[in-house]
Specification:
Structural class: alpha+beta
Helix content: 25-40%
Strand order of the largest sheet: 1-2-3
Order of helices and strands: EEEHH
Oligomer: single chain
Strand content: 25-35%
Number of helices: 2
Number of domains: 1
Distance between the termini: 49 Å
Shape: elongated
Low-confidence stretches: none
């Protein structure tokens, strides 16, 4: 997470690097990793604000889900899995470099 002081309010979370990982039924993995910057334009003493020390993982996940298109994220993960499948070359016993 990235935090800073804004309008004399300390430890305002302004962004977070996050990753979502998925696996298909065959065990292929896909992931999506990005930095999401939060809108801090409205941060002032009148803002409903969760103190940094009171933040939970769920709070951060909720914020991320509010500002990202989760369908796009999930589709990217599925595409990543398909790329792994398409580029996979299995090596079977008898073809290892020390056996050839």
């Amino acid at each position: 997470m990235t935090k800073k002081t804004i309008n004399k309010i300390h430890d305002v979370v302004v962004g977070v690097v996050w990753e979502k990982i998925g696996y298909d039924e065959e065990g292929y993995k896909g992931s999506y990793k990005i930095f999401t910057q939060f809108n801090i334009d409205q941060v002032d003493n009148n803002t409903t604000f969760i103190q940094y020390k009171e933040l939970t993982k769920k709070d951060i996940i909720d914020w991320i889900e509010l500002v990202t298109d989760q369908n796009q994220v999930n589709n990217s993960i599925l595409e990543n899995m398909q790329t792994c499948k398409n580029n996979e070359v299995k090596v079977v016993s008898g073809n290892f470099p020390w056996e050839v």
